[in-house]
Amino acid sequence: MKTFITAISMQGTLTEGIYEPVGFTLDQNRTTAFPIIPIIAQERAENPEEDFTILAVVPKNSDTAQNYQKFLAELAALGIGKDAVRKIEIREDQSEAVGLAMFADILKQTPDDTDVYACVTYGTKVVSLLMAFSLIFMEKLKVNCLVQGMYYGEVRREANKEMGRRLYNLVKYLQLGEIVDSISQMGLPDAEELFKKVIIGEDE
Fold this sequence. Notes:
Blueprint: E1 2-7, E2 20-22, H1 36-46, E3 52-59, H2 62-77, E4 85-90, H3 96-109, E5 114-119, H4 125-141, E6 145-158, E7 161-169, H5 176-186, H6 191-203
Parallel strand pairs: 1-3, 1-5, 2-7, 3-4, 5-6
Antiparallel strand pairs: 6-7
């Protein structure tokens, strides 16, 4: 089972481009307005018979509604119908109540026994933060749930001119909490130094 999660942008006009992967390969890369689309295409090409679901966090406003239809159109180009998408609608509101409700809904809609691929490119800072937290906790709260990707699509600009796009898999950041917990339980006086050595060593 594969689960793909993304927020839908609130920008008035979404432009398309090719997001070049950094540190990994993407045979199914393509022009898109949504960085999660080539990830979905890649996983579907490699595992065409495997069940999947798509969670879309959709803030309620007119621009987002238009962008959601664009997202569905890009999925349709992959042969994926709108019935595969579970829409998580939220108010355009950064309050704790709205954020926690979204957080709980993401966890509820994520099935057990699944690999998760999420994109945190779009949404407010609060939405992106809560999506990242949901990825951390779903591995602890769901059964056989493994987060394989947390992607961020970067559009590089200089003097208001687009200079290229990059796609990063930031899943390693989700593991920092577990590393800190493990080191903290050791009760060492130089815990911070050990943490630095561990993360620097992993990067090398």
